[in-house]
Every structure is written in C-alpha cells, then in structure tokens.
Amino acid sequence: TPPELIRNFCIIAHIDHGKSTLADRMLQITGVVSDRDMRAQYLDRMDIERERGITIKSQAVRMPWQSEGSTFALNMIDTPGHVDFTYEVSRSLAACEGAILLVDAAQGIEAQTLANLYLALENDLHIIPVLNKIDLPAADPDRFARELAGLIGGDPDDVLRVSGKTGQGVEELLDRLVREIPAPKGDPDAPARAMIFDSVYDSYRGVVTYVRMVDGTLSPRERIQMMSTTATHELLEIGVSNPEPTPTKGLGVGEVGYLITGVKDVRQSKVGDTITTHRKPATDALPGYTDPKPMVFSGIYPIDGSDYAELREALDKLKLSDASLQYEPETSVALGFGFRCGFLGLLHLEIITERLAREFDLDLITTAPSVIYEVTTDTGETVTVTNPSEYPDGRVATVSEPVVKAAILTPKDYVGTVMELCQSRRGSLLGMEYFSEERVELRYSMPLGEIVFDFFDQLKSRTQGYASLDYEPAGSQEADLVKVDILLQGDKVDAFSSIVHREKAYAYGTMMTERLRKLIPRQQFEVPIQAAIGARIIARENIRAMRKDVLAKCYGGDISRKRKLLEKQKEGKKRMKMVGRVEVPQEAFIAALSGD
Ligand code: GDP
Ligand code: MG
Fold first, then answer.
1. Angle of the 19-29 helix axis to the 170-180 helix axis, nearest 10
2. What backbone torsions phi and psi does residue 373 show, to the nearest 5 degrees?
3. Rounded distance from Cα 16 to ligand 2 centre (Å)
4. Mean pLDDT across the chain, nearest whole number?
5. Mind telling me which SMART domains this protein's record contains (predicted)?
6. pLDDT above 80 for 561
7. What is the dihedral of CA 214, 218, 223, 225, to 10 degrees?
C-alpha cells in the first residue's frame, strides 16, 4: 500500500472507557471479522487481560476502509493502558501519526487518559477527541465535550460522539481518521528502518515482532539486523495482522506488520529497537530506544520448598515473553530458597505472580515490594540496594531513593483527604488545577517507596474509588532512611527487614512485632520479638512460655490414638521453619507479610 493510503492510529483511553469494545466495532464495520466470528474483546487474547479487563500487550490490526473514493489501510495499534508500561505505550504511540482520545461520556477524563495524552502530544500525534458510551442514560456528552475541548483546544462541537456498544458514530469516526490523520512519511529508497513497538512470545512460532516501517522496505528471506546489538537474523515470515497473521511480500514505508525470525526470546527483539537489513544497513537508529528498567523488587518463594525447581522453570518461561522481568536466586532464613525479582511496577508484579499461580499452578509467597536505593558508605563506596538484607548497616553515610511525579485526578470533594494521604507519604505538592468545576488534578513529587506500599489502595478507599493515579519516574533524592530489622529471640528474620523513613521506623516496628506476637504460637520458652535499627531496639513484644504436651491430653487413652497424635504433630512440624530455636509455622510468615 502506498503511504498516501495508510493511516496509523491508536486509541488512548482510561481502563473501562471502552477501548476494546470500540476496537471490536471497528473490526466488524470494516469487515475484517465477520459477525459470526465476533466475540467480545476480540483483540484481548490473554486470559488475565480479559478477566481483569486490562490490556497488557499491544497488538496491531490492519483494516480496509473505503473513503473519498479510495481504499485506505487503517492500522490500529493497541496500547497498554497502565502506568507500569509507560515505555511500551510511548513506543506504540511513536508508531502512529494520530490518536483517538476516547473518553467515557458518563465519567470524563481520568489520570491515565491524561498521562497518555501528554505522551501522544510529545510524539506530535494528531488527536481526535471522542466521547464514548453515549447510549448510556447517565451520559452527559455536552458537559464532557466542553471538558475535552477545554483540555486540547478546539470547539466542543468537534468532539465526536459514539457508542462502541451500538456502533453509533463509528463509521463517521473511521472517515474522520482518514481525513484528519496525516499519511506516514518516509524515504522508500533509504536503507530500511523499522521500529519495534511490540514483541510477543508464541510457543509455536517463537517471537513475533510487531514493527512500523519508517524508511525503505523489508522482504521475506532477507537478513535483518538489530541496531542496538548488531545481531542478525533471517527473516522467515513477514506480514500484516487483519487480525489473523497474513504473510505478505514485504512491508514498505509507513506500513505496520509483524515479522518472525528464528528468535526464541523477546530479549533478542526488544521494544524500541530499530531493525535494518544486513545487506544495506542504516547508519542511525530511530530515536527513543531504552532498556526496560525494573523499579520495584520483591522476593518470590514457593510455599512448598520442593517447588523451587518448578518456580525457576516457570520464570525462565515467562522471561521469554517479558523482557522487563528480571530475577536471580536468593535465600531467606524465613522462607528458604526463592528468587529476587525486578518489576516495572506494582501491576507488573501482580501480573507475574498471578501468571505463576495460574499458568504454572504454583503456591507462592511474595515479600513486601522494595525500590532501588543508592547507598554511599562511610568509606565512599556506592552500593545499590534492592533488598533490605543488602543494606550496609552501620556504614551508611547517605541514602538516596527514587522519586516520581504523581498526578492524581479526583472529584473536588475528596481533595482534602487526598492531600492528607499524600502528605503522610512524604509527598510535596507541585501544583493543583481545576479541570472542570467538579474535578481537580493534584500533582505531587513523592518517593516511589511510599507509593509501592499500598498507596493506590488507600487512595481508592479514601475516595470511594473515584480518584485515579498516574506517575512517572523523576530522578532521586537523598532521604533520612533506616533499615528496621525484626528479631525473634535475638535472631533476625530477614523477610521482615524493611527500609523506611526514620519517622516511620517506630510505627513499622510496633506493627510487625504486634502482628507476630499474635501469629506465632507459644514455645517451651519465652520468646522476645523485637524491632531494631542496627543495635538499637525500638519496639518489643513477648510470647510467653508454654509447656505443650500433646500426650498429656489423652492420658490413659489407647496407644494407637497416641501414636496418631504424634504422627500428626510430626506432620505439622514439617511446615515449621526454625528461626534460631524458635519454631514458626509457615502460615505465620505468610500472614505477617500479607498483612491480614
Ligand atoms: P477498555 O478497558 O477501555 O478496553 O473497556 P472495554 O471495552 O472493556 O469496556 C468496559 C465496559 O464498558 C464493558 O463492560 C463494556 O461492555 C462497556 N462499554 C464499552 N463501550 C460501551 C458503550 O458504548 N456503551 C455502553 N453502554 N457500554 C460500553
Ligand atoms: Mg480493553
């Protein structure tokens, strides 16, 4: 297809505003999916995505559309909607010339919509504002059309009104895409340059790489080269998705499609990288490539120690499809053998642990998430700490922690409680803006470490679910942080160590010691539970001694019953972990870590 007849676009929307449903209608109206084959959320393939209603991986679909007497190829590039995947969103946007800004006509603009809109504007995309769900009785399109026009400029009358559910307005939207979104530009005679905006592992076909051609052409059987590593691969198949993969004779300027090489691991085909040909390589890579950087770390342990090998295999498998997942073996006194894993954010952590449980049937325990601290010691050495147990206790000169810029959108009635929450999380207010009479945007600078610790849950519960949050990394800052250890009879329980702000150390210490006192059964001797910063004890609880004699309970009973009881006690012991001399049931660790 010549570039003049190509339109590349994506849909920017907050979760639940109807992106998948609108995509379904477009597939149907353009005829690429027949009514018979249509099922809801056609493009959301992963089970977890469908159940949780989130899009994890983006996809691209090509749809033919007749307009102005020609047949256009509309390439719809689906972007992940969540803050954890900002980098992937930015690469998907970079593959487009335009974006539909889709807003629920009963809800209005949300924080995620805004964050992605800013990214789209940074990439110079043409924005088409659209209100969705106008079939809903609660829809208030006049009001939100004004809000949208206020946000991006222009006339409220230019805001298109559609229903992804009934299909109303969707044809008009397709015509408008053709009319308003610029055709792609590129040099057909230059050395090939294609940008990877997604890379998906498929157990049958290996890695499927989604690309946007910028210059030149790629054809099958050609040797391609990854510009970040100069590694070369043979092109086994190249094609477009409409929406099933369909091989073509190649891809030219402005086209969007997929390609398959022999590669088995997405790390060899990285989002953001530029593909060129080995025969006639381009000299400059396309801008914007960075390696995915984990921001949040957590220990993952099998509840049953004998599942360790299975856990390793499962992580190896997931890694094939997720270049941003990192892990290395670690051991814990309390939890045994496991892995220290790095994630892009909290949702990413949740997705991975859920996939491990669901796809690999593993029972796991996850330690409290931690961020990356840069510690300078008194000898001037710099240590990167992603696990509290690596903290160079007693030798710390300075600590710096990652900071994010957070944007919170909330109805104005909740501004007070949201500000209180942000302040309690060491946030400093950067700005506040009324979006409409009803809705306010609050911008804060906040330590990431405070956000990973149940901030989102707190925000939701304080605002009855109405507030939305988005954040982006904004460097780091020095902070007065300390490591709090939890000791059982003088022995450290590594899984409970935490790096916290000095002012919160006491609160963390009392919370954990109290929790453990309730969870750990009495032993034959008194067990002190202490919280400490270095050698200084900041909180203490006691578990009183108890003589536990199972056999005494059934004095005089028959011997086989006694034997059974002994067996039962032995069984129970297997699930016990020893911390020094103290026996702790595994469940106590799990309960203490999960906080219920
Ligand atoms: P996404 O998270 O943006 O992909 O949103 P979905 O497409 O999954 O839609 C979220 C919910 O809104 C689903 O329950 C849809 O059925 C519903 N929905 C989507 N579009 C419309 C619409 O135009 N009208 C109505 N009434 N409901 C819609
Ligand atoms: Mg969706």
1. 90
2. -110, 140
3. 7
4. 88
5. EFG_C
6. no
7. 10
- Tell me if 436 is assigned to a ligand binding site: no
Q: What's the mean pLDDT in 535-555?
A: 75
Task: Check whether 16 is labelled as a binding-site residue.
Answer: yes
Contact 233, 176 (CB under 8 A): no
As a whole number of angstroms, the distance between CA 572 and CA 478 comes to 47
Q: Which of 200-209, 332-341, 352-361, 480-489 has the highest mean pLDDT?
A: 480-489
- How far is residue 293 from each of residues 145, 168, 300, measured CA to CA in Å? 38, 42, 19
How many Å apart are CA 273 and CA 228, to the nearest integer? 6
**Which DSSP string corresponds to 153-188?**
-S-GGGSEE--TTT-TTHHHHHHHHHHHSPPP---T
Query: Distance, CA 126 to ligand 1 centroid (Å)?
Result: 24
CA 144 vs CA 109, 126, 401: distances in Å: 8, 20, 39
Which pLDDT band, with edges at 50, 70 and 90, does 549 fall under?
A: low
**Residue 495 three-state SS:** helix
- In degrees, rounded to 5, the angle at the alpha carbon of residue 474 between the alpha carbons of residues 472 and 475 is 140
Q: What pLDDT is recorded for position 562? A: 61
Measured CA angle at 61 (ends 252, 197), to 5 deg: 65
- The phi and psi torsions of 267 (rounded to 5 degrees) equal -65, -20
Please tell me the residue having the least CA distance from ligand 1 atom 9: 18
| Ligand 1 within 6 A of CB of 236 | no
- Tokens representing residue 558 in the block: 């028959």
| The two structure tokens encoding residue 262 | 């022999």
pLDDT of residue 507: 93
Average pLDDT over residues 65-81: 90
Q: Residue 596: pLDDT above 60?
A: no
Taking the CA of 44 as reference, the closest ligand is 2
Q: End-to-end CA distance of the chain, in Å?
A: 58
- pLDDT of res. 54: 43
